[in-house]
Amino acid sequence: MHSRFRSDRRLTVRMTVTLFLLGLLYVAFVAALIALLKSWVLVVVIAAALLGAQYWFSDRIALYAMRGRVVERDEYPQLHGVVDRLCAVADMPKPVVAVSDMEMPNAFATGRNPDNAVICVTTGLLRRLEPAELEGVLAHELSHVAHKDVAVITVASFLGVIAGLIVRFAFYSQLFGGGRRDQNTAVVFLGIMAVSAAVYAISFLLIRALSRYRELAADRAAALLTGRPSALASALTKVTGDIARIPTKDLRTAQAFNAFYFTPALGRGPDVARLFSTHPSLEERIEQLGRISAELGEATAPRKA
């Protein structure tokens, strides 16, 4: 099913290339583990089970981790009303609507396809935004679902997560149990750590590059669907500024899900730390929305004359 969100060929190409490269990396990763552990059945079964679990249950995992709960229309009629209107305009299935009781203003979408999607907003976001701003944020999240990049980023993130977990497991196993292992076992563990660390680093860079572009694509699609780029720009400015004032310790739990958020859960850290961000800079996003606003203004000028 095709929605009325404007398609983005460059996003499609980037998603395809990223998945292809990660697929090759995944095969090489599994092959390396089989060679090191000398047990292909164990590696393949565990890898397939974990990938399937993340794909099928990613929405539930994300909601649980961010303390989100599904809400009905009578609890949040305005929120449901905005989602209903946007889905009607975009000609797409309505996702499950959820709310997370968090002070941090943010929103995210998750799910393996448009028919099994969840869109979640925090209570902090609902308290801060005007109706037009909220519409822009929700349109942004719905465009992620329509473009299917939510499913892509979920699958793409899997390899990095597993590699990271293996590095930690191997490190702590060596740290606390190294004295009880022979030299061959130690070499195997060091090999697993090295391969996993390399895989994590490569997948990290690939996912960050895709994530930054998909956020710009979602901003663009939302602005064109609603016809109000300025409202989305206002929401971006307001949310980013408010997140920066939230204590860092309160953002740590949320940072693991930055790739899914409307804006990253980051404080005012050094610029170097933002080079590997999941999102483009606020300035870049605002600049793009400014260009779209000018384009829409030029397109509507002749009609007013």
From TrEMBL:
Q: Give the family per the record.
A: Belongs to the peptidase M48B family.
Top EC class, one word: hydrolase
Q: What is its EC number?
A: 3.4.24.-
- What's a Pfam family in this record? Peptidase_M48
**Residues bound to Zn(2+):** H140, H144, E215
The note on cofactor binding and number reads: Binds 1 zinc ion per subunit.
User: Which InterPro entries does the entry link to?
Assistant: HtpX_protease, Pept_M48_protease_HtpX, Peptidase_M48
GO BP, one annotated term? proteolysis
Cite the GO molecular-function annotations of the record. metalloendopeptidase activity; zinc ion binding
Localization per record: Cell membrane
State the protein's name. Protease HtpX homolog
Q: Which residues form the Peptidase M48 domain?
A: 77-290
Membrane-spanning residues: 12-34, 40-57, 150-171, 186-207
The membrane topology term of the UniProt record is:
Multi-pass membrane protein
Record key words, sorted: Cell membrane, Hydrolase, Membrane, Metal-binding, Metalloprotease, Protease, Transmembrane, Transmembrane helix, Zinc
| Highest taxon, organism lineage | Bacteria
Q: Which GO terms describe its cellular component?
A: plasma membrane
What's the name of its gene? Answer: htpX
Q: Is Lipid metabolism found in the keyword set? A: no
Q: Which cofactor does it need?
A: Zn(2+)
Active site at: E141
